[in-house]
Design goal:
The chain has 6 helices and no strands. The protein has 186 residues and is mainly alpha-helical.
Length: 186
């Protein structure tokens, strides 16, 4: 339907990001149920941009926009909770943001080096670059964000718990990535 309407993948990516920023703004204003609804709409758009791209012509620009705007969106949610209640949420939000830096940097660093070596992912062949999986992925993040929106008074517990899952993902990516990259480059 989007293609027939002339809506391209990049437009879907950008719209999803804009809706995600609106979700973060709602959360910062302590309208967490509205934030959750916007968050779900944002992630629906994020799930549609790839199929739209594959039905047309996937581009490096689209892959770049998708991952960059996803990481910016993901960081906006803990920041929004910190803004909503700095006294209770600033430290747990900072811990979660630090964990997000670890998951994001391990993901992207491996993708760059895998591209340099010409590696491809058998598990995620339709992705725009080598997709190194982990325990804390998009679905788990969405579930955690939904729990935060539904029970915002427990944000600290959700944030610390998810940061722990992210830490496991970071560890597995470091070990897995280092193992793959230690093999001789053909």
């Amino acid at each position: 339907m989007l293609m027939r309407a002339g809506v391209g993948a990049d437009a879907v990516t950008i719209a999803g990001f804009a809706i995600g920023v609106a979700a973060a703004a709602a959360i910062a204003l302590q309208a967490t149920v509205i934030g959750l609804a916007l968050l779900l709409a944002s992630r629906l758009a994020d799930g549609l941009d790839g199929p739209v791209a594959r039905l047309t012509t996937p581009t490096d620009r689209g892959a770049f926009l998708d991952i960059t705007l996803d990481f910016l969106y993901y960081s906006s949610v803990p920041l929004a909770f910190a803004i909503a209640d700095p006294t209770a949420n600033a430290l747990p939000a900072a811990v979660l943001l630090a964990a997000f830096i670890g998951t994001g940097s391990s993901f992207l660093a491996f993708a760059v080096l895998a591209e340099r070596r010409g590696l491809a992912s058998d598990a995620y062949p339709s992705k725009g670059f080598f997709y190194l999986g982990g325990l804390a992925e998009a679905t788990e993040t969405l579930i955690c964000f939904a729990l935060m929106c539904l029970w915002p008074t427990h944000f600290a517990w959700w944030a610390y718990g998810f940061a722990a899952l992210c830490t496991l993902t970071i560890a597995t990516r470091i070990v897995g990535g280092a193992t793959v990259l230690s093999r001789k480059h053909p």
